[in-house]
Amino acid sequence: MFETVTKNLEKHNFTVSCFATAKEASSYLNKEIDGQSVAFGGSVTLDEMGLYDSLGSHNSVVWHVKGNTPEEQGILRKKAMDTSVYISSVNGLAETGEIINIDGSCNRVSSVFFGHERVYLVVGKNKIRPDYDSALDRARNIASPLNAKRLGRKTPCAEKADHCYDCSSPERICCGLTVLWCKPLGAEMEIVLIDEDLGY
């Protein structure tokens, strides 16, 4: 079901696992990650999968969205930098192998790039596009506006959740763009592909 993107990701040294359902992927991750310190990037995908609760039952889990105040969230973001495992989703994945993320505070993209013993990127089929340009377009004009709306941001894109306005709002959430062309040197990184629509 993911032949082309798997081939291209593996060509760029990523480990790839494919699953028919989110439930199967969740079961796999719970077997792979046990007795570890784990942090989550902001992700509707991970929330929909219930990974915080399932992994939290046998791991030490940190997620800034569980903070009740901006101060608590900031503390949790910093704590997340010290975990052995980091899990996130992506905003766009090209079948040609490029992995695209757009971030506000950039804690998520920095943790994906460096600092953890293992990184898992969990991706529903709705995030996949044929090439880099269309994956970038998806990240900017689908994922980012929907996330801004979900977070209640005062930005032009959040009002209609239709496309990026390249605004100057102080509440803008698309502050940093990252592209992984191949697995970072020395990193242990696995892409978990799921044949279901998940997240934005």
The biggest sheet amounts to: 6 strands, parallel
- Described by the principal axes of the CA atoms, the overall outline is globular
Please list the strands of the largest sheet in the order they lie side by side. 1-10-7-4-2-3
How many angstroms separate the termini? 20 Å
- Our Rg estimate from Cα atoms comes to 16 Å
Low-pLDDT residue intervals, each spanning 5 or more residues: none
Number of strands: 10
Helices, by number, come to 8
* Strand fraction: 15-25%
What structural class results from the helix and strand content?
alpha/beta
pLDDT average, as an integer?
96
Oligomer: single chain
Order of helices and strands: HEHEHHEHEEEHEEHHEE
Helix content: 25-40%
Helix/strand layout:
Layout: H1 3-11, E1 15-19, H2 22-32, E2 37-40, H3 44-49, H4 51-56, E3 60-63, H5 70-80, E4 85-88, E5 92-94, E6 99-103, H6 107-113, E7 118-124, E8 128-129, H7 132-150, H8 156-160, E9 176-180, E10 189-194
Parallel strand pairs: 1-10, 2-3, 2-4, 4-7, 5-8, 7-10
Antiparallel strand pairs: 5-6, 6-9
What does this structure look like?
The protein has helices at residues 3-11, 22-32, 44-49, 51-56, 70-80, 107-113, 132-150, 156-160; strands at 15-19, 37-40, 60-63, 85-88, 92-94, 99-103, 118-124, 128-129, 176-180, 189-194. The two termini are 20 Å apart. It is of the alpha/beta class and 200 residues long. The strands form 2 sheets. Strands 1-10-7-4-2-3 form a 6-stranded parallel β-sheet. A 4-stranded mixed β-sheet has the order 8-5-6-9, sandwiched between helices. The protein is built from 8 helices and 10 strands. The longest helix is centred in the last third of the chain and has 19 residues, at 132-150. The chain is 37% helix and 22% strand.
